[in-house]
Amino acid sequence: MMRFLINVYTFSMIIAAAAVSAENPAEPCKLCGHDVPAPVSSQPDTTIHYPQEKHLKNIRQLTNGGDFAEAYFSFDDSMIAFQAKSAKWGTKCDHIYYFPFKDGDMKNHIPGLISEGLGRTTCSFFMPGDTSILYASTRSGGSECPPEPERRADGKYLWPIYPDFDIYVANLKGQLIDTLVKSPGYDAEATVSPKGDLIVFTSDRSGDLELYTCKIDGSDVKQITFDLGYDGGAFFSPDGTKLVFRSSRPKTPEEIKEYKDLLKEGLVAPTNMEIYVCNVDGSDLRQITSLGKANWAPFFHPSGEKILFSSNHAGARGFEFNLYMINLDGSGLERITWDPVFDAFPMFSYDGRKLIFSSNRNNGGTRDTNLFIADWVE
């Protein structure tokens, strides 16, 4: 569920600098959980594009009024599947939608609902042929939204690992076709290889949160990672031979105990993660970043030689996430976006010409997170 999970990035420079006070209290951001100062209503953010964002041009805002995240292209680049929580759409927790670009944008109408409004959902992705979409849902545990974990006294942000999450496939009318991946416990965060032959997902079926692959029909499940810690949010390289993912690796006895204790409660703390790469069979596992804090939401550059990801390593206040790009050998770190609050969930179109991502920019002085699409400039 995490692929998309840490989402709350941008207000404007002025809003991000707003002081926290009794009149302007801090609240945890809806997507990343870190404290975000309340916006200054007299100076709402109206920024779409920052001058430093040289790799992006012709940025367009697709959504307005809610929390929108994890938008991923169809194989033919004509549609996106995404998750959304929006009072305007009558949703109390994340649900899955799809949207054809020929429809213009989603500001004035509700796109097609895929997940039937049942349970809580996450991590949608088009299947080969673009006539169906996979997603994870807690629907087997009930039609209502499951409770979110209470915030602890120490302020630590925690992600729920709902045991009712399984991976389903539905057609574009929202009709359920198949239960693709199901086991006792958490199965979610699935994405599909550009080759159309494999799916990667995260599961706790081994007692730890590890990566698994299966064939496109859900058969031949294979465990890919084995080290203690949360492995998730995996994506395939453009040629389908590699995986990139985020991971926590508790080292000290205290860190290991905390991780295991939280996992027993169905929780994980996503505040210390780095980016890793391996072959699709799990071989040649390598750590790419050593930046500290939370590095996540990675996606391969169209060349297959670089990775885009979201990170708060350069921020002073924890909630300041931006997109960065780095070479596969860990060199050449480059900042891509400059919003002072939140940018995350990047995905390139299959033709490599477009980038879609989630951001808090131009949210009218609210804490809303919206979808943006831009032309990519090398």
Question: Level of helix content?
Answer: under 10%
Quickly give the CATH architecture.
6 Propeller
Strand order of the largest sheet: 3-28-27-26
In whole angstroms, how far apart are the ends?
A: 31 Å
Determine the CATH topology.
Answer: Neuraminidase
Overall, the morphology is globular
Number of domains: 1
Helix and strand pattern: HEEEEEEEEEEEEEEEEEEHEEEEEEEEEE
CATH C-level category:
Mainly Beta
Number of helices: 2
Uncertain regions: pLDDT < 50 for 5+ in a row? 1-43
Structural class: mainly beta
| Percent of sequence in beta strands | 35-45%
Compute the CA-based radius of gyration.
19 Å
Mean pLDDT over the residues: 88
**Main beta sheet: strand number and arrangement?**
4 strands, antiparallel
CATH superfamily: TolB, C-terminal domain
SSE layout and pairings?
Layout: H1 13-16, E1 26-28, E2 35-37, E3 56-61, E4 67-73, E5 79-85, E6 95-100, E7 112-113, E8 121-126, E9 132-137, E10 159-160, E11 166-171, E12 176-181, E13 187-192, E14 198-203, E15 210-215, E16 222-223, E17 231-236, E18 242-247, H2 253-264, E19 267-268, E20 274-279, E21 286-287, E22 295-300, E23 306-311, E24 322-327, E25 334-335, E26 343-348, E27 354-359, E28 370-376
Antiparallel strand pairs: 1-2, 3-28, 4-5, 5-6, 6-7, 8-9, 9-11, 10-19, 11-12, 13-14, 14-15, 15-16, 17-18, 18-20, 20-21, 22-23, 23-24, 24-25, 26-27, 27-28
